[in-house]
Specification:
about 425 residues, alpha/beta, Rossmann fold, 2 domains, signal
């Protein structure tokens, strides 16, 4: 994936940036920062290219997420070929597979940084893998931008300034479900299945704190390990609670299992809330759409299966370019749209950087001011600050009907509803 030159106002911004932070070529192909940017890191970036590295579970228990880099690559191929690239530079995006295994993620991060000599790690997927790699990235002062996990520590831990999340953090998502129940089922009794790691605990704790002092109560909890073959035993146990709401905090493989088990259990018919990371059509389809009617979740980006976006300019562009640059990938898969939105967010962040350096990208990702990303839902923007590493904290509820999700209600801004997330 390559490119050169951007047009219009973006070109003017780039020229101004180049004048302030101009550079000269280094022996390793990088650009040596000069002027206001002198002494800053330029490994992996030249006047013509930017090298990015992503780490995803292309295999293993979370392999459904392997669709995300397909959307990212399609976006970068599109801007490289038709829009002059990102900040006038062709993006070279290398994807490595960690199998959702933290030790492998560390190995791949080292390979990308030390052998591939990438400018930044753009997305490491999963809380365990990102936890395993963020000390390394920060010690090396390599931007680890828009990690594909919603753990709250990416935004609340000030000791890792080179790492930042993207999607709504899990505490915020738990708050969204709490807000929904307080309004729609104010006396709900809730049974919870959660992954026994930072991901599962973060969302559960966000939900638990948000319902404190209300009549919504958690009556039973069950955890599972990512190494477990099935969550059916946990589901049978939860069914004995006779809770009228089931909160499903799982990754896709286990999300499908929990949905299927819920459909088979007799005598228990709770409102089923499935967290966003397991709410993709690819998770629901194996269960059978007839078995997931009425399930609810929350979202923050446009679903390519929702007909309300058929005439949306960004959705039209996304579908056309996915067919053009990723012909083997189905544009209807939401994870592709997720990747497209994340890549667009990187594009806007990089073009906002005052210096085309690692430090410049770090500062830009920590200074996003109401940035509009066309693939995000209306009312959802990117907003960060020096002490706010949570780019997205708004979501909208959705209900599964027929063969797709339908949005309902208003976008819930958890910053306004509950205050800042502190970890």
């Amino acid at each position: 994936m390559r490119v050169t030159a951007i047009g219009g106002a973006a070109a003017a911004v780039l020229l101004a940036t180049t004048a302030a932070c101009g550079g000269r070529g280094g022996d390793d192909g990088s650009t040596t920062a000069t002027g206001a940017c002198e002494g800053q890191q330029t490994t992996g970036i030249t006047d013509k290219t930017i090298k990015l590295g992503g780490i995803y579970p292309l295999s293993g228990p979370a392999s459904a997420y392997g669709d995300i880099p397909k959307g990212i690559k399609a976006y970068f191929d599109y801007v490289n070929g038709e829009k002059g690239g990102v900040a006038g530079r062709k993006v070279e995006f290398t994807v490595r597979d960690d199998g959702y295994q933290p030790p492998k993620a560390v190995e791949e991060a080292r390979r990308l940084v030390e052998q591939e000599r990438v400018f930044a790690l753009f997305q490491t997927l999963g809380t365990p893998s990102t936890t395993a790699t963020w000390d390394y990235a920060n010690q090396r002062k390599v931007p680890q931008i828009f990690v594909a996990t919603g753990a709250s520590k990416w935004g609340s831990d000030t000791g890792h300034p080179w790492t930042i999340g993207w999607q709504p953090n899990y505490v915020s998502e738990g708050r969204v479900y709490a807000q929904y129940l307080k309004t729609e089922r104010p006396a709900a009794k809730v049974a919870v299945l959660y992954q026994n790691d930072d991901f599962g605990k973060d969302l559960l704790n966000g939900f638990r704190k948000a319902v404190e002092g209300t009549r919504v109560s958690i009556v039973k909890e069950q955890s599972y390990e990512v190494s477990d073959p099935s969550v059916e035993p946990q589901m049978r146990n939860l069914a004995t609670s006779r809770a009228d709401v089931f909160l499903n905090i799982t990754t896709p493989k286990f999300g499908s299992q929990a949905l299927a088990a819920d459909a088979k259990l007799t005598g228990w018919n709770p409102l089923h809330i499935v967290n966003n990371v397991a709410a993709s059509i690819t998770t629901l389809r194996p269960v059978g759409f007839g078995n997931v009617q009425g399930v609810v979740s929350a979202n923050y980006y446009k679903d390519p299966n929702d007909p309300q976006w058929d005439d949306d300019a960004e959705m039209k562009l996304y579908r056309a370019k996915m067919k053009q640059y990723a012909p083997g990938a189905d544009p209807a898969v939401p994870y592709h749209a997720f990747g497209w939105a994340a890549a667009t967010s990187f594009h806007k962040t990089m073009e906002a950087a005052k210096c085309p350096t690692r430090e410049g990208l770090r500062d830009a990702m920590r200074g996003l001011n109401n940035v509009q990303v066309p693939m995000l839902l209306p009312g959802v923007t990117l907003q960060t600050g020096p002490d706010d590493g949570f780019p997205i904290e708004s979501m909208q509820m959705m209900r599964f009907k027929g063969e797709r999700w339908e949005l309902f209600g208003e976008v819930i801004d958890t910053r306004k509803a509950f205050g800042p997330v502190t970890g």
